[in-house]
Amino acid sequence: MPISFELSATDPGGLARRGRLTTPHGVIDTPAFMPVGTQATVKALTWDEVALTGTQMVLANTYHLYLRPGEDVVEQFGGLHGFTGWRGGVLTDSGGFQVYSLAKLRRVTDDGVTFQSHHDGSSHTFTPESATRTQERLGADVIMCLDDVAGYGEPAQRIEAAMHRSLAWAARCRDAHVTDQALFGIVQGGFDEPLRRESAAGMTALDLPGYAIGGLSVGEPKELMLETLAYAPSLLPPDRPRYLMGVGWPEDIVAAVAAGIDMFDCVLPTRLARNGTAITSEGRINVDSPSWAREDGPLDPECACPTCTSHPRAYLRHLAHAKEILAARLLTLYNVWYYQRLMRTIREAIEEGRFGAWSRGFRSTVPGG
Amino acid sequence: MPISFELSATDPGGLARRGRLTTPHGVIDTPAFMPVGTQATVKALTWDEVALTGTQMVLANTYHLYLRPGEDVVEQFGGLHGFTGWRGGVLTDSGGFQVYSLAKLRRVTDDGVTFQSHHDGSSHTFTPESATRTQERLGADVIMCLDDVAGYGEPAQRIEAAMHRSLAWAARCRDAHVTDQALFGIVQGGFDEPLRRESAAGMTALDLPGYAIGGLSVGEPKELMLETLAYAPSLLPPDRPRYLMGVGWPEDIVAAVAAGIDMFDCVLPTRLARNGTAITSEGRINVDSPSWAREDGPLDPECACPTCTSHPRAYLRHLAHAKEILAARLLTLYNVWYYQRLMRTIREAIEEGRFGAWSRGFRSTVPGG
């Protein structure tokens, strides 16, 4: 069964969309946030806890899972669902971004990308065909075309070449793809509008069931990202889900929803939690603060998650200060819960035609927003 | 409300005892195993999970909690129960053993022990009076007399002096103690039977509500520990709970129960779990083994814990190999569950008068046992 996508509401004064992505593993209400489960685990959480946060879909990283345990192992257990026990939706990225950001000695040709494992330096190659096949064996509901990732600040020529190569690779991924998993394309083109237009047009011509915007949140100034977001989503067909890869902070998600984005993933809520940072309705808080040593009351008074309803701030501060695993657990649960509560609030605001007003209010509460 | 202790069954052919320790925080069925919650958390578990394993009482370390967050903070939240949210029994050690094993530049006099924090080198002193007061403020159900700990291999003169000093300190702890928490004495004396007899007689004369055997499992050959266990518990009054500190492996617990011990604590199930080792009915297993990479089926086929009922061995192996927090979580839950299942089996065997036969069968299954 392939995926289907339907829009149930759009913001009357803007581009925000409320939709439903139906997958073989349940309906994903959009705009949706996917926590990152890099190595087939959302770090510090059980899968029951992931579900408890309201998460309907997670992202897993092909690069990591290809290296270990290997897609053959995952396939033997019926794909990521059977291997992990997670019953909701799964999306795998293509590995392109991780090769760009993690691997050593990356070498890209028109054929594919050769790289050294960040674990042991062993040499590997992803081609559009092999990356697609690997993701087919990992068995996610949504898989991504291999893309050639150029970073912020690289020469214009390299940005353009990476965009064209990503387009050619997407056609090869589509042709190689044999399962009924939904294959999404990734629009590239850096911060150059004509390149983004060309990429989006080329991707649209491939008639894929969904599209991602890649190459944002790669170190550029935030204004540049917001400028790109202002036009990039609308270049994509309105009846397909739009996924903004690797973004981000709550205020960026709200801005991207306003620009017509439907899906998000980001490591921030889980990574920050492991460093002792909570994302709250009043901004980011370092829990390991001397000022919290004797604080009674919950982490976030507005939150009903198990962390906020079970423990005073002083206990969380003690655990974070002592670098206890329970601190990572409780803060990860809290942060992911916060993101999913935010997404629920966003969806309700769109449904009720008041997203514009709500988002203006939200932005006014963000420090520096 | 002070504690009370009653024996409900004894092994007809031996010294094993089945009892109930009633505390302000519930009944603890004995023989009982207390997981260690050093810094007011059983590492990697929530308190709900600790309860799920069947745990009725935990141990927390006074040395660690005195250093951080400080007993004043814990007291402000109503003691360890209020601070952590744990509703079962709590026992705090006196700090003597941690000062011996962790602190730097330890200096013991008749007055007390001065030491440097292993965190920041700051200087601190525990006296019998201050260690008692600190434990009163931490608010555990059972607290321990400060003892002078001598290690295996120290000169006989030092072993004897430490025993006498521990006895004198126990009297001072008893005199200083003002709450209705149960204060247990700790028998010392190394591996010297006359010293152990003198210590036990002196402790018994103090008429404390319970007694521990300290100074075992400190690096000595296992035969020496078993030799001491053969006579040391019987030196203590039969109507008081007997607690063997810091022991240990499942086979040691079974041997100690056979010698008349009622209570145990040990870091092994939690510490080993974080290193990827599972304690199973078939011995210790390193979960991060290539031979498990494709293994279907549960960690321990005899176990009904969430880890064994939710995940195949291959997933656990992958998580342990990738050093994921979820590996520590799932293995800790499993290991503590295993210990509590063992204690339940022991209690039932004593109740039904078949502990001797059961323990012989158990020992025959232990590799090298």
Entry summary:
The first copy, chain A, has 369 residues and is α/β, with parallel strands linked by helices. Chain A has 15 helices and 16 strands.
Written overview of the protein:
The structure is a homodimer of 369-residue chains. The first copy, chain A, is α/β, with parallel strands linked by helices. Chain A has a single domain (4-266), classed as TIM Barrel (Alpha-Beta Barrel), CATH 3.20.20.105. The first copy, chain A, is built from 15 helices and 16 strands. The first copy, chain A, has helices spanning 47-52, 62-67, 71-76, 79-84, 96-101, 128-138, 156-176, 193-205, 222-231, 250-258, 268-274, 306-310, 313-321, 325-351, 355-365, and strands at 4-10, 17-23, 26-30, 32-35, 57-60, 89-92, 104-108, 113-116, 123-126, 142-144, 182-187, 211-213, 242-244, 263-266, 277-280, 283-286. An eight-stranded parallel beta sheet of chain A has the order 4-14-13-12-11-10-6-5. In chain A, strands 1-2-3 form a three-stranded antiparallel beta sheet. In chain A, β15 and β16 (283-286) form a beta hairpin. In chain A, α11 packs antiparallel against α14 (325-351). Chain A is globular and about 60 Å long. The mean pLDDT of chain A is 96. Chains A and B meet through α13 and α14 of A and α13 and α14 of B.
Instruction: Report Rg of chain A.
Output: 20 Å
The domain count of chain A comes to 1
Number of strands of chain A: 16
The name of the CATH architecture of chain A is: Alpha-Beta Barrel
Please give a handful of descriptors for the protein shown.
homodimer; 369 residues; alpha/beta; TIM Barrel; eight-stranded parallel beta sheet; three-stranded antiparallel beta sheet; 15 helices; 16 strands; globular
